[in-house]
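FAQ

Q: What does a record look like?
A: Structure on top, sequence underneath. For example:
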């Protein structure tokens, strides 16, 4: 029964959050600063997620093969490589670094 209670509470919270977002007045939503923040927020959150996944190992900061993979991916992006090539380059660089260490 505890799992179902958690599901019901989670669903209710999601519904209330959606309702709160729809209750924001139109002038606030259409304001230039609000639109700028809404456009830039996903980029910041994605960058933070990538940083945490690259440099964190549980509760500790670490530098390992993942850093090499991200660095190679950044170089590939700077050279305008296709997305699949960027992913393949990062994975290959990470795997090679792990095999050498």
């Amino acid at each position: 029964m505890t799992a179902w209670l958690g599901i019901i509470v989670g669903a209710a919270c999601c519904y209330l959050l959606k309702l709160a977002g729809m209750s924001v007045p139109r002038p606030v939503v259409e304001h230039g600063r609000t639109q700028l923040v809404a456009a830039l927020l996903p980029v910041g959150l994605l960058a933070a997620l990538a940083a945490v996944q690259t440099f964190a190992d549980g509760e500790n900061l670490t530098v390992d093969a993942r850093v090499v993979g991200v660095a190679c991916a950044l170089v590939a992006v700077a050279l305008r490589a296709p997305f699949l090539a960027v992913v393949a380059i990062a994975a290959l660089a990470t795997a090679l670094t792990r095999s050498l260490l």
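Q: Is there anything notable about this one?
A: The two ends are 48 Å apart (CA to CA).
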